[in-house]
Write a structure and sequence with these properties.
heterodimer, A: 2 domains, 4-stranded mixed β-sheet, 40% helix, B: alpha/beta, fumarase, 6 helices, 27% strand, globular
């Protein structure tokens, strides 16, 4: 067994919350800057230019990229040869979030109860997903998720006969309904298969994948490419003011499913698609 | 067309703005988002006094990040306006003249904008660091207990926005979709 102490987990999650909110990953930033070069709408191009400028100011002046610094979604891949020492793991993850959001001057956006809605004032709790994998390492991903785009996400329980066309229609309907609300240009994470909750989790995981990395299965990669073209043909454009850049990327994750079903979840993310991964 | 306006808003100037105009705002504006709207709405329904005079003034749908030492405000971009739709017609009927947010508004809000000759502006979503540079002072004036959702009085200089719904009810999002 390899021992990992929760102090190490707290320290890393704290740093990752801050890093994610001040600096986008290379792939997302490159997509925004490339989109500027290719945009044909005057207002759309102006907005993409300002989004690039916004990224420069955020890293230079230590101002979060977006004021919605999100609900902290944390993925833990725990090697089955890892022993975690110290405090309770869930408490440790939330302590890391607490310290990150306080030390990083990040917004506290979490309310303790969906109806009573009292702000917890430290952005906890996060949403934590645990996965047991082989090996002796612990992989942590922190993905602060803004709710302007989260609110525009949807799940469809399609029939097997709906097939690929049904999936395409569901995605296009979701993107159209989101329109300017989700802060386009967006990134579209799609989960297909599994069960009701599994496809939602796959959609969230799809948002974590590098935008330059295509799906390893040919028919899924082709569907990603087809969807990106079709979404951009909607011409919602940057800010919803028209143009060719409605989405920067479409990532799909799939899983085996039931003979009777074709679940599809579409998780929309704005251009501030934040995620940081570290292996301890 | 590029235009420069000052707050408090001049009703005549507002009626001349058209969907698609790129406008730079200078002057005092007030922040309020979900929880502050709920409180203001309840106050008005009870016949109470609002924490600031909304007549010919403007609300910015904003909950900023905390400011560091030496900064006026943290990241300060717009939040999604449609969550305020339930409360907006009443505020407009009481004299509110403009809103800054992002995204679509419902039919009731558009009707209230026309009726009251008001205007709905959109700022760039997800450009909170850039927009914070246009805010020159910030002071919490009400609902301090709401944290980021408190009402702030901001002084802004040439704050960049786009007219999306003008006083005649023209809607830039609709115009854009029809033209392609």
């Amino acid at each position: 067994m390899r021992i990992v102490h929760t102090d190490q987990i707290i320290q890393n999650i704290k740093e990752m919350c801050i890093e994610a909110n001040y600096q986008l990953s290379r792939d997302v930033e490159d997509c925004i800057r490339n989109a500027f070069d290719q945009e044909d709408s005057v207002l759309g191009k102006q907005i993409l230019g300002q989004l690039g400028e916004n990224l420069d100011i955020a890293s230079k002046d230590f101002i979060p990229i977006c004021q919605d610094t999100g609900m902290a979604v944390v993925f833990l891949k725990i090697g089955q040869e890892v022993q975690i020492d110290g405090m309770n793991l869930e408490e440790a993850v939330n302590e890391g979030i607490r310290q990150g959001y306080q030390k990083g001057y990040l917004r506290k956006s979490i309310v303790s109860d969906p109806f009573i809605r009292t702000n917890t004032k430290d952005n906890t709790p996060g949403v934590i997903h645990y996965e047991i994998v082989s090996g002796d390492q612990l992989e942590i991903t922190v993905s602060p998720k803004g709710f302007g785009s989260e609110n525009m996400s949807r799940i469809y329980m399609l029939k097997p006969s709906d097939g690929k066309e049904g999936v395409i229609n569901a995605v296009l309907e979701t993107v159209k309904l989101a329109g300017p609300n989700a802060c386009p240009p967006i990134i579209v994470g799609i989960g297909i298969g599994g069960s009701f909750e599994k496809c939602a989790l796959l959609a969230k995981k799809a948002l974590l994948r590098d935008l330059n990395e295509a799906h390893k299965l040919d028919h899924i990669r082709q569907l990603e490419e087809e969807l990106l073209v079709k979404i951009n043909q909607l011409r919602i454009g940057p800010g919803g003011f028209g143009g060719r850049t409605t989405a920067l990327g479409v990532n799909i994750e799939t899983y085996p499913t039931h003979i009777a079903g074709l679940p599809v979840a579409i998780n929309i993310c704005c251009h501030v698609n934040r995620h940081v991964t570290r292996v301890i | 067309m590029e235009k420069f306006i000052h707050t408090p808003l001049n009703p005549e100037e507002i009626s001349e703005l058209r969907a698609g105009d790129y406008v730079y705002i200078t002057g005092i504006i007030y922040t309020a988002r979900d929880a502050a709207h709920q409180r203001m709405f309840d106050t008005m329904m009870d016949g109470g006094q609002l924490p600031f005079d909304i007549k010919n003034n403007m609300i910015y749908y904003l909950g900023p990040t905390p400011e560091r030492e030496g900064q006026v405000i943290g990241s300060a971009g717009p939040t999604t306006s449609s969550r305020m739709d339930k409360y907006t017609p009443l505020l407009l009927d009481h004299g509110l003249k403009g809103m800054i947010g992002k995204g679509k508004r419902n039919d009731q809000v558009i009707e209230a904008i026309k009726k009251n000759k008001a205007v709905y502006f959109v700022a760039i979503g997800g450009a909170g660091a850039l927009l914070s540079k246009k805010i020159k002072s910030s002071e919490v004036i009400a609902y301090d207990d709401l944290g980021t959702e408190a009402i702030r009085k901001l002084y802004v200089e040439e704050f960049p926005v786009i007219v999306v719904i003008d006083s005649q009810g023209n809607n830039l999002y609709e115009i854009v979709l029809q033209s392609c």
